[in-house]
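Lecture notes, continued. The same structure-token format from the folding unit now serves as the input rather than the output. Read the line below as a description of shape only.
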């Protein structure tokens, strides 16, 4: 029997993709908002594609805010965007 692949929906583009292809944005129990590259940290998570475009769409439609059930401050969104840009460029170099 084939192993079931967990799917998650990107809060930016709305596409369902395998969990491993997405980046998890996490609201920790202390209410910090961080990127969770491992996907295993404790807290409420929302998923976005590994692209800045999806992050921007998610910010514009307030998709991340809704998924994490908190309003994310602008400075935190900028920090997340910078981290995502460095992750995105890192994955492209590996190909």
């Amino acid at each position: 029997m084939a192993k079931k692949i967990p799917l998650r929906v990107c809060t930016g583009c709305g596409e369902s993709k395998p969990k491993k292809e997405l980046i998890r944005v996490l609201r920790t129990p202390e209410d910090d908002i961080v990127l969770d590259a491992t996907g295993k940290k404790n807290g409420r998570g929302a998923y976005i594609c590994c692209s800045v475009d999806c992050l921007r769409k998610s910010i514009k439609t307030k998709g991340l805010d809704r998924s994490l059930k908190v309003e994310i401050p602008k400075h935190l969104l900028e920090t997340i965007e910078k981290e995502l840009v460095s992750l995105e460029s890192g994955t492209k170099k590996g190909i």
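Point for the exam: The helical segments are 52-60, 63-68, 74-93.
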